[in-house]
Design goal:
Layout lengths: L1 E6 L2 H20 L5 E6 L10 H7 L6 E2 L7 H19 L3 E5 L3 H12 L4 E4 L11 H12 L2 E4 L2 H9 L6 E3 L3 H16 L2 H5 L7 E4 L3 H4 L2 H14 L6 E4 L2 H9 L3 H6 L3 E4 L4 H10 L2 E4 L2 H9 L4 E3 L7 H5 L3 E3 L4 H9 L15 H8 L1
Parallel strand pairs: 1-2, 1-4, 2-3, 4-5, 5-6, 6-7, 8-9, 8-11, 9-10, 11-12, 12-13
Helix pairs in contact: 1-7, 1-17, 3-4, 4-5, 7-13, 7-14, 10-16
Length: 361
């Protein structure tokens, strides 16, 4: 069986690492082999957002490296669709595998569908119920096209059922949890990020934000930054790995200098996955607008504040690990003052979601 896997962004690299490992495990134990070829769309084209993850996670090098990271959503998706179709016509795989909800996901799905190649969607069924998010459109369209849908939670499976999608739907757990278990242990042994930043476990907060619905609005960015300026102190700073998009908008909104000069905020370049895991594990609190990092916060037992009005991971809120604060300064500070340890979530599996996926396929 030949599978073409399509990736383009940080969360997809992490998920692909676990599934590629499961494919290798299968191939070593069985005479029927799975051949995996990888297309990297270049959606994350920054060195620290892309290539470093392939190195850190030991993902097989892409067979095709596209450069589709610039432009509007339509332009980016269109470029990917054109280039992916060319590759699929030559490779003619048995299946195309996509992850999550990015433009790379949708472009790969559409290209495969037009060529009548079955699509495998890993992390199917997630819904924010906010169609202003480009990711929500990508999720819905991909799920309604895909031939095999692998859900991380029972809620995701219920979402698909309500939309009439019940065939070839499998609840397998979360491949991100597989990664958290594997790389959490490795990070403790190999990462030097805490010592290099001069911080100790539990003595800092971690913040990431990059979504367009935040960065593209000055009032949203201003609300977040004002909260960070209040929360961050010399003895308990906010560590802020700066996404390229966030850096651009902080500069455009004349907020970058205030952040750089504040003694309670430490701006750093984007970091590789093991270093990010180490920061997540040892932070006293995480503030983020990332869907993946919300879950990773729970995996590493760190309270989280989500800088959005909704989440795809409702179970993290219900269990008390995650609070929805939006971008209002006072709400963020109030959530910070009320952050706490939550209860156990019995949804994400036992660390073998990738193995289950390959077994089903």
């Amino acid at each position: 069986m030949k599978i073409v896997t399509i990736v383009g962004a940080r969360p997809q690299f992490i998920k692909a690492a676990m599934v590629s490992r499961a494919i290798d495990k299968h191939n070593n134990a069985n005479s029927s082999k799975i051949e995996e070829l990888i297309i990297h769309t270049g959606q994350h084209y920054d060195e620290n957002m892309s290539r470093i993850f392939f190195s850190d996670l030991r993902i097989p090098q892409p067979s095709w490296q596209l450069q589709c990271g610039n432009g509007s959503h339509g332009e980016m998706t269109g470029k990917m669709l054109i280039e992916i179709e060319k590759i699929l016509l030559k490779a003619m795989p048995d299946q195309v595998l996509v992850y999550g909800d990015t433009n790379s996901t949708l472009a790969g799905t559409l290209a495969a569908s037009k060529l009548h190649i079955p699509v495998i969607h890993i992390e199917a069924g997630l819904r924010s119920f906010n169609k202003m998010m480009p990711e929500e459109t990508n999720r819905i369209l991909t799920d309604h096209i895909a031939s095999f849908l692998f859900c991380p939670t029972s809620k995701a499976r219920e979402n698909l059922s309500r939309e009439g999608i019940t065939e070839n739907v499998f609840q397998v757990g979360d491949v991100m949890y597989d990664a958290a278990l594997l790389f959490g242990e490795k990070a403790e042994k190999k990462s030097t990020i805490l010592s290099s930043l001069g911080i100790k476990s539990g003595s800092f907060k971690l913040c990431t934000f990059h979504r367009e619905e935040n960065t593209n609005h000055i009032e949203h960015v201003t609300g977040i930054i004002k909260a960070l300026l209040t929360i961050g102190t010399v003895n308990s700073p906010v560590i802020l790995p700066l996404h390229p998009r966030t850096h651009t908008y902080l500069k455009a909104y004349n907020l970058l200098q205030a952040v750089q000069e504040h003694p309670g905020i430490h701006l750093i370049d984007p970091v590789g996955y093991p270093d990010m895991v180490m920061l997540e594990k040892h932070a006293s609190l995480i503030l983020t607008d990332s869907g993946g990092i919300q879950k990773e916060a729970y995996f590493h037992q760190t309270p989280c504040i989500t800088l959005r009005e909704e989440t795809e991971w409702e179970e993290t809120v219900l269990a008390g690990w995650n609070q929805l604060a939006g971008t209002d300064t006072e709400r963020i500070i109030s959530c910070y003052n009320n952050s706490k340890i939550g209860s156990y979530i019995d949804e994400y599996g036992s660390g073998n979601a990738a193995d289950k996926i390959i077994s089903y396929l």
